[in-house]
Amino acid sequence: MSFKTPSELAQGACSVAVSKSRWSVVQMLILGIFAGAYIGFAGFLYTVVTHDLVGFAGVGFTKFLGGAVFSVGLMLVVIAGGELFTGNCMMPMGILSGCVTTGQVLRNWLWVYLANFLGSVLVAFLVFHSGLAAGPVGAHALKIAAGKMSLTFKEALVRGILCNWLVVLAVWMSMAATDVVGKIFAIFFPIMAFVASGFEHSIANMYFMFLGMLLKGSEKVAGLANIPEGKLAYVGWEGFFHNLIPVTIGNVIGGVFFVAILYFVVFKDKLKEN
């Protein structure tokens, strides 16, 4: 066949976990910054494309198109090269298979998560100072940030679970493809689905919320956004972590349990043979 089977993907996931566990700190920081930046680029593209589209195309198509363009972020990570915390939630399959240790996985997660944060806020900082978010695009970005920061803990947690179930499946499916076009299609549909559905991605949220915090200080942007004071008050560091903590926990649950653990249960006999 021109693609790998699910059992072959499980075997490949173990090999990937081993490779990722061997990165040096410098390699993880560089590749993690790249991945955070690529997700930030996708976030800005999403905002530009969707900021005024509802009035012309309706809510549903706007969500679809926003998800479609956002998928470029994971395409850059997988094809160009990057270390993305949410995608690396597949690594515990290597723990279960005995090819990596829990310490190695946690080491990767720690440095990659930190680097993703640096890359995402770097792009948010550059976008803010580019002047490209000084008008209606910025107002839309501020609305997005306020909406994320005002979610309840439970809402953020559950949306995080649903999100990374799909994101890790996108990475999983991309491993099945043997050519670049196949990888693009494997990534496109799950990422489009999670964004259009309104699920929550921790690394994307780092970008969206940090940009929102920068834009909140602009009277012009805040005026165009016309967000109620009660909701705008969430935009700040407290709101940042109010969202990021449950979303990150949810992302770990979604990727580790619903993909890594359950696929290991299905294919553990095949993995033992190897």
UniProtKB/TrEMBL annotation:
Transmembrane segments: 25-49, 61-82, 110-135, 156-174, 180-199, 245-266
Major location (coarse): membrane
One function term, GO molecular function aspect: formate transmembrane transporter activity
Iron is among the record's keywords: no
Localization annotation: Membrane
Membrane disposition: Multi-pass membrane protein
GO cellular component: plasma membrane
Keywords: Membrane, Transmembrane, Transmembrane helix
InterPro entries per record: Aquaporin-like (IPR023271), For/NO2_transpt (IPR000292), For/NO2_transpt_CS (IPR024002)
Entries under NCBIfam families matching the protein: fnt (TIGR00790)
Protein family membership: Belongs to the FNT transporter (TC 1.A.16) family.
Descriptive protein name: Formate/nitrite transporter
Species the sequence originates in: Thermovirga lienii (strain ATCC BAA-1197 / DSM 17291 / Cas60314)
